[in-house]
Amino acid sequence: MDSVTSTEFGAPMAELACSSGIVPEGVLNGAEPVVLRGLVAHWPIVHAANESNRAAVDYLTRFYNGKPVNAFLATPEANGRIFYNETVDGFNFAQSQVYLDDALNKIIDVADQPNQPTYYVGSLEIPQHLPGFDAENALDLGQTSVREGIWLGNQSVVAPHFDFPDNIACCIIGERTFTLFPPEQQANLYVGPLDFTPAGQPISMVDMNNPDLDRFPRFAEAMNAAITVTLKPGDAIFVPSMWWHSVASKSALNGLVNYWWRSTPAYLGVPTNALLHAILSIKYLPKEQREAWQALFNHYVFEQPDDMYDHLPAPVKQKQNQMSELTARKLKALLSSKLK
């Protein structure tokens, strides 16, 4: 492909200068996206990328330990869009196990060719496949249980989706345009199946390259609420939990390092699992029963009145107000037995 075309829209995003390589205080606890210009401009991989794509590939492959990686490959007709097929019973790409150095060299080889296929290696765990890279290209977020991944490929467009963890994404090679939508815009994004997704997360069915407002009229409201930014190598962005975001990789070779962490312990599980179970057990109940369960969820989950356990003896009240790892394990075991 000559380039991935995209319809860019959205208001500019808030920005902070971060030449010191330190995330400004308060950003990681915020609820709004923030661009962090120059946050990782000092990284060796960014210096290599600014020299050339070949220098960037040579730098990355110094750390590669030869383990196969999962790659997405789409034909030129996909125009870089990682998506479903026409009937939404499959996808417009194939997945295969490849060697990362072979994939990166292939991207370099076809960089000047028209009608390129799309190569996409996503969410590759750095310690598992590029040991030592994070020692030379480090970012201290002051968080525990941070998952560090790298995303590599040529030009592509990833549909709007959300992630449960908070996220700092650092552009290391090429340019990437992020378009973000607030969580309350979910109803205007025309989300696809929850149980059948291209990469694990539900995605918007709207083509970000060419939004069809006749088919998806409410997306016009989402466009009005969107914010956008283009990152260059060395820039980063903080994407808060549950914000929908689309990412367009703009260059012949693109690289991104991201850090995911959550504000609650991992033993509490992932809310998406609760959503799927609620769809299974509540969605098809009669209206009156659904409303009764909605009231229970509001009381125990979403509203949580301060005095909701005041009528219980103090030891029982304390137990009900706390969620320890032991209690979480007991609840999971109970759920597992009931689901059988």
TrEMBL record:
Q: Which InterPro entries match?
A: Cupin_8, JmjC_dom
So which residues are the signal peptide here?
A: none
Kindly give the Gene3D superfamilies that the UniProt entry links to this protein: Cupin
Q: Which Pfam families match?
A: Cupin_8
Q: Domain named JmjC: which ranges?
A: 102-279
Name of the featured protein:
Cupin-like domain-containing protein
- The organism named in the record is Alteromonas arenosi
